[in-house]
Amino acid sequence: xxxxxxxxxxxxxxxxxxxxxxxxxxxxxxxxxxxxxxxxxxxxxxxxxxxxxxxxxxxxxxxxxxxxxxxxxxxxxxxxxxxxxxxxxxxxxxxxxxxxxxxxxxxxxxxxxxxxxxxxxxxxxxxxxxxxxxxxxxxxxxxxxxxxxxxxxxxxxxxxxxxxxxxxxxxxxxxxxxxxxxxxxxxxxxxxxxxxxxxxxxxxxxxxxxxxxxxxxxxxxxxxxxxxxxxxxxxxxxxxxxxxxxxxx
Length: 249
Prior knowledge:
Blueprint: E1 12-16, H1 20-35, H2 39-44, H3 47-50, H4 61-66, E2 71-75, H5 84-87, E3 92-97, H6 100-113, H7 123-131, H8 140-148, E4 156-160, H9 161-166, H10 168-179, H11 185-203, H12 224-238
């Protein structure tokens, strides 16, 4: 997607990643912080209508054009395929990256849960496809490095999923500054607590496999040989990048 023509008129907050669990958490935390909403309120709304996916046919671009400014839109697209309005710095981008070992496990579980076209192969086969860039949306390694190259841009906020669990208060403060909203100390503390509640609700939802939101999830399924192979591929594809991850907390 080069430019749909519907973005330059209104300010846009766009957030991107490849993990649907990260996407769900990020979209709800961003909505919570930007709107000053309550976690229970979010649970009652159709969040997909409030934060539509750019590349999905439903709800579609018509819904995006009808949203009031500032609009919140999510995407899994690589940086180079985002609308040019974002490249020009006229809109803000929030990107969340998750350590790739946990991500591939979560991605596998997501594919297994799909009602249609669900994946029925082994995790070993799925992980090989991930390492060989043979899954939907292409290479994770290219995707994350492409955004990391822009992490110092004024209109880009690059976040890590693990930091949400390690130091949520700091992440909320980053979001508050980046979004340009204002909270006093008591309101900020309350917002952090609301975000904690929201994350607990998302990570412990009955519909999710047990522990899917946990940092270090990969240790329960990776074999020693798989881990060694993954580390080798990771080093080959990320060797020149100074981006680092926490693989367990």
